């Protein structure tokens, strides 16, 4: 049980996108269909979704023209219209515009030991009917930097690591300032951080340069530091590790100013339970072995914090969640280590190194 992989041979953005779209044509079409079903279940009309996808492309073209070219290439390779690939990349923005709520979501742990590389792990929860959306994608830039990302078919990036010694984890947030006026998709911010940043400070600057319409947190990790970059239309805040080198994040804002507009915690209070579970288990999350860190994450509701999620099949698709992947960053090697499924299924043999 592993995720499909693809390694690009092209460095020109449009050519790289076309190659990616051609190779993953069926998966991209299936991902688009899955999101179309999700948006319809949440009450969004097809014409409105198309308009949001087109606005996302406009925002991307203004902020990062090469990424707009890559999206156009993916569309050409996959036999889709550019706005359709725009919809896939802007799914967080569309869900914020719809104001969809639910009870799943992700948990991230980063520990910076006094000696040795960062020790990270996160669960990635999403709707169970989209469990086949993820792919592992490797591409090289003209500069020679290699990026490896766990993403969804047709999406330019999500969780990832680079040979420049930087990696990112990714969690969704919700804020009162989220708006239907589609801005730069947050997944594209993660992509530019992976492509361009070599430090936490450079990553924060990139995040602050984008006009966004939805909220997220991108936890950036290097060999010497880390920060959870909380992004919302109301502003951007960088949360550093504590004095013990521990940085934990779930799906609520930690910055005092941004927390005043918190949405997730009022609608999904389980995020606080998950944070308490992480805080109570820092020793296990600090371990050198990824398998042990993942098992430390393990907790099921209702007995404990729902860090490892399983779908309730009695619910409609927009209210069903599962832990699709468990992921750690190996910064020294510039590699991802990925387990397909939640911590309750982890063994030493289930890790995919990419």
Automatic annotation (TrEMBL):
* InterPro entries given in the database record: C45_proenzyme-like, Peptidase_C45, Peptidase_C45_hydrolase
Question: Which residues fall in a compositionally biased region of kind Polar residues?
Answer: 1-12
| Coiled coil region boundaries | none
Does Acyltransferase appear among the keywords? Answer: yes
Q: Where is this region: Disordered?
A: 1-20
Q: Which GO terms describe its molecular function?
A: acyltransferase activity
**Residues in Peptidase C45 hydrolase domain copies:** 160-288
Q: Which UniProt keywords apply?
A: Acyltransferase, Transferase
Q: Which PANTHER family match?
A: BETA-ALANYL-DOPAMINE_CARCININE HYDROLASE, PEPTIDASE C45
Protein name, please? Isopenicillin-N N-acyltransferase-like protein
Q: Which organism is it from?
A: Nonomuraea rubra
